Amino acid sequence: MCCSCDRIAWKFDGRKKERRVTLRVISGSARGRKLKSVPGDTTRPVMDRVKEALFNILAGDVLDSNWWDLFSGTGAVGIEALSRGASFVRFSDLNRAPVETIKENVEHCGFSKQAEVRKGDSFSMLSAQVDRKFEYIYIAPPQYQEMWSKALKLADDHIGWLTDDGTVIVQIDPTEYQEIELKNLEETEQRKYGSTLIIFYDRLS
Fold it and tell me: 130: closest CA among 68, 190, 77, 189?
């Protein structure tokens, strides 16, 4: 089975690890389109089955939705959302190489008019003034640095980024999981796929 998106970072033991990974769009209008990897990237790709399972859970709710893909990497998750009918995706990443890779992948798949790519710190962006509402905020930062919990807490503190029925989706290694005390979000579901844990946090009404 092919791998499809660059997400969780492994701990580097000092030895260079070479691996060839084919990134692609699984389904929708851009199905089968190959995506570029980030040059010099050290993230571990998530299996196609994880990404496919995620979008099978969301199913028709993806249609016409707005997404914010934080820590975007290649942009594979946001591009998958666009391919499956999302209206708009904001991609954001801290470093230049991922940002340029996202732009190329978005253009290659024909979604430039439905996408916005921002370079900058995700935590600062979450803390900024709300300029758009999203049905989904996707958080998949590098592993083992507690970045996911910091981003989740910021999303909770700045809940205006989410629509009234919005959801924050977190992707981490299962060993990282901890219960987080939240004011405006509620954990509603977990799905584990091998070394990947997907957690859903819905906005409280």
Answer: 68
